Amino acid sequence: MSLAARGLTLRVPGRTLVAALEIEIRPGQCWAVLGANGSGKSSVLAALAGLRTPGEGAVTLEGQTLGAYGRRELARRVGILLQDETESFWGATLDYVRLGALARGAGGFAPDPGIDRDAREALAALDLERNAAQPYRTLSGGERQRARIAQLLVQAPRFYLLDEPLAHLDVRHQVATIERLAALARGGHAVAMALHEPWLAARYCDHALLLYDSARFSAGPAETLLSRAPLEALYRCPLEAFEEAGRRLFPPVAT
After folding, report:
1. What torsion do the CA atoms of 35, 37, 42, 44 make, to the nearest 10 degrees?
2. Per-10-residue mean pLDDT for the chain, 255 residues long?
3. Domain ranges for the chain
4. HSE on the CB side for 201, CA within 13 Å?
5. pTM to 2 decimals?
6. Which CATH number fits the domain 3-249, given the four candidates 3.40.50.1580, 1.10.599.10, 2.60.40.2550, 3.40.50.300?
């Protein structure tokens, strides 16, 4: 079972973001998607979720193209956290998180003890128990981001695609959130997330996809790709590299 890009090419007017991408994401794997601003991270994740049509190539799920699946059937298997939120939900945070169950065939706001339990567990996992009754639109940016991830936990897809899941989060919640996502992979789900923190990618991810400005890519084991030379080429800036308590760190060189 896998979610795979086969010869995937994505373009925007005047530029190719990525050419002939080959990547296969399997349950149990945790992928970091890294690259400079504008390198195509969001576009790749959107294509993997079926939200963007490739210029060439295809995305397959369990050996079939995404078009072979109905919308709800696909949502039961693949979930995505988009970088931008286009609408503000009017209700309570708990109700917002419960909406993740729609992909499972559950009715919107109809009483359902099982969905309520799942939603409250997801809120607790993201340190939002006290915010359950608070109107969603009154949450802070970081709280809202965690509520969006909690909704995805209630959706419970096999493949989790997350576009900058750590945006707006303070350091404590960054670490707690990425630990929760990495735990999903250890539990048999697949996780792929766009990150801007190479040290967190090196600590928590076992695979990496590096997207370069020139439409090139590198994909493979994180142990190989998340090292000084590939990351310097990726970000086009000098980095230091050292280990602290067995963890690889890549701070930029001060100028």
Report:
1. -40
2. 96 95 98 96 97 95 94 94 84 95 74 89 98 96 97 97 97 96 98 95 96 94 92 90 74 75
3. 3-249
4. 27
5. 0.94
6. 3.40.50.300
